[in-house]
Amino acid sequence: MNSEQCAVPSPLKVGVVGIGWAGQQHLKAYSTIPGVQIVALAGMEEELLHSLQAEYAIPQAFLRWEDMLEYQDLDAVSVAVPTFLHAPIAIAALERGLHVLSEKPLARTANEGRTMVAAARKAGRVLDVAFNHRRRGDIQKLKSIIDAGELGRPYYAKASWLRRTGIPRLGSWFTNPQLSGGGPMADIGVHVLDYALHLLGEPKVLSVTASAHAELGPRGRGGSARFSPMSAEHAFEVEDFASAFLRLEGGATLLVEAGWASYREKDDLLDFMVYGTDGGAELKAKGSPSAPVGELTIFTDKEGVNADYWPHALPGRGHQAVVEEFIAAVRAGAAVWGSHDGSLALGRAEIIDACYRSAREAKEVQL
Fold first, then answer.
1. Considering the entire predicted model, what is its pTM?
2. Which class does domain 137-315 fall in?
């Protein structure tokens, strides 16, 4: 065996921008993947930055993301920062020939997202977005049941993520639409939209009719210390609850609900319900996203006799699976990079934009 056959592939060198909860999920995931080295980290909270640098033995740490991207020893970066920074950081990284994994949503608006996708295509690099909830074990289990045809043809579905007191940091960038792109529809609703369309087989969305409400946040209600301390930097200028009715190609319809705050039961709820021509299903994950596995019920019959059952699902792998799939795409080479250009996330952004337009204009919006 010659030396070329024995050669070990060079390690993939990655950097992470952002050191909050999401950034820490990326760090944790990268640290477990063989052949991946975390070589750079950027974040504004200096004490936490150096603590994480020491924990993961990261050679370089930067207070400014611009400085990190000037670091020559990088192959890929994760972008885990407030939404208004997704586009500038991702585009700058792509222009330097780096692969990019961004947190959701893709960007504040679809137009901004299009610039990111265009940059990925021009650079010929991967642009993936972290939709970790589709990697839940219960959602994956339900996906396999729907794909196997057990429910027949799905014709109506409803999906939601609802909180009692879950506005993240009242008065922070989350509540400023110029920084966040929107309230819960943009923040957690994009997750709901993603896993619902994923479960339904990615049908084309033809139109949306949406409504948005800001009833509790403007009065200082609906915040929670578990989402970090309250802030007073910005007024509350987004919705705290939104719903959207989507007409899908083929005649099916989907109702999406996203709420940071409303007078409902205490525990968060992430759910999905679907009616099909041969069966139905309901998933309820209370305490989401902390609940590792929700209650999954399949409604069906055999020869007219009730045959409902409750399939077993394992916990999902969340960001670990997201990061592993990103690394796998990067390692697969240029032949597959073009299919990882952020297009799916851009489609989600276009639907979210249509929802906000429909809510503002109080009318159905065609896509």
1. 0.94
2. alpha beta
